[in-house]
Amino acid sequence: MIQVAALHGVNTRPGDPGETGVWVEDGKIGAIGVRISSGFTWHGLAFNIDPDLRYFEHIVPCGITGKEVTSLQREVGDGVELPADEVIHDQLVECLARTLGFTDVEFRDDSECGDSIGATAAAATQS
Questions:
Q1: Catalytic residues, which ones?
Q2: How far is the C-alpha of 3 from the C-alpha of 53, rounded, in Å?
Q3: DSSP letter string, 1-23
Q4: Number of C-alpha atoms within 13 angstroms, CB side, residue 18?
Q5: Cα–Cα distances in Å, from 121 out to 52, 62, 88, 93, 95?
Q6: Is the model more confident about 26 or about 81?
Q7: What is the pTM of this model?
Q8: Strand-pair partners of 24
Q9: Pick from 6, 26, 31: nearest CA to 16
Q10: Quick one: pLDDT at residue 42?
Q11: Which domains, from first to last, does the chain contain?
């Protein structure tokens, strides 16, 4: 997420101790999570491209109080048109795969992974 935000001119940082995710100053732009179920480890992330941020006013995201939630669109400015969500998705996959040393990313439907959590799973081979 940090690399993708940088592609769009947004400076981000990892969270301070007790703050998971990716931050722009005091605004959380991305969340990360891990789940272990039936012997599988599931890793996930949520990168706020252009959500309706008003919904976050009614919750305490990730249990962190006194901080706001932001988005890539808010940070680049309303006058800047971002690429389609699919393009940013591909940028995320490419950056993550490169960071982890993987090539040949293959997308699979959840049903192929034995779970129906509503997310896309990606398999990759290490170079």
A1: 62
A2: 22
A3: -HHHHHHTT---EEPPTT--SEE
A4: 5
A5: 25, 23, 17, 11, 16
A6: 81
A7: 0.80
A8: 27
A9: 26
A10: 86
A11: 2-126 (3.30.930.10)
